[in-house]
Amino acid sequence: MKFFIDTANLDEIREAQALGVLDGVTTNPSLMAKEGITGKDNIMRHYKAICDIVDGDVSAEVISVDFEGMVREGEELVEIDEKIVVKIPMIKEGIKALKYFSSKGIRTNCTLIFSAGQALVAAKAGATYVSPFVGRLDDISTDGIGLIEQILTIYRNYGFDTQVLAASVRHPMHIIQCAEVGSDVMTGPLSAIEALLKHPLTDIGLEKFLSDYKKGNA
Ligand code: E4P
């Protein structure tokens, strides 16, 4: 399973990249705003800065909600760097844009997916990735991981190439569950990735190994 980090924070992206297990980055307008990145030029520069840090795909979201606007923005975004994947919202105009970009060989990530039907249409339109929001579904007492599993089944049934990118991942158990059901990608915060490394018995065991070594090598 590919690990993407869901942030626009350059320090966190650097830290995740340094860990050596990062496969890409996802951003959205809220994450960009959180970092105080405003204005078209700054936004474009920031995407470039992210691309310069990571080896993998970087999702950059369009703001337009009409077909022409999405196409214009997407075409500008892919000029920034070959790592850019154009993130398109799951709306009617977005489906048309997915189809357009797919015919031009431009990679896309269809975001704000909350149902299997949405994922099916996005795949038919040629999306490279679909982003079902696991955490936001769990927030409303709906099974987010269940949706990932359902989409994977549908994609397997028909041999779609679209990759399932489990988004809105909040904690390490979400990551494990995504891996169990076979999600192609997950995107989450650095804290969730780092939490995978932790176990109290590892800390206790290491402390004992080191103290025993010190006793014999004082
Ligand atoms: C998807 O790519 C979004 O950026 C993101 O995963 C949303 O996560 P949130 O629900 O934690 O805001």
UniProtKB/TrEMBL annotation:
Pathway: Carbohydrate degradation; pentose phosphate pathway; D-glyceraldehyde 3-phosphate and beta-D-fructose 6-phosphate from D-ribose 5-phosphate and D-xylulose 5-phosphate (non-oxidative stage): step 2/3
Compartments it resides in: Cytoplasm
Record flagged with keyword Cytoplasm: yes
One Pfam match: TAL_FSA
Protein EC: 2.2.1.2
Domain of life: Bacteria
Matches recorded under InterPro entries: Aldolase_TIM, TAL/FSA, Transaldolase_3B, Transaldolase_3B/F6P_aldolase, Transaldolase_AS, TSA/FSA_arc/bac
Catalytic residue list: K87
Protein name per the record: Probable transaldolase
Lineage, opening ranks: Bacteria, Pseudomonadati, Bacteroidota, Cytophagia, Cytophagales
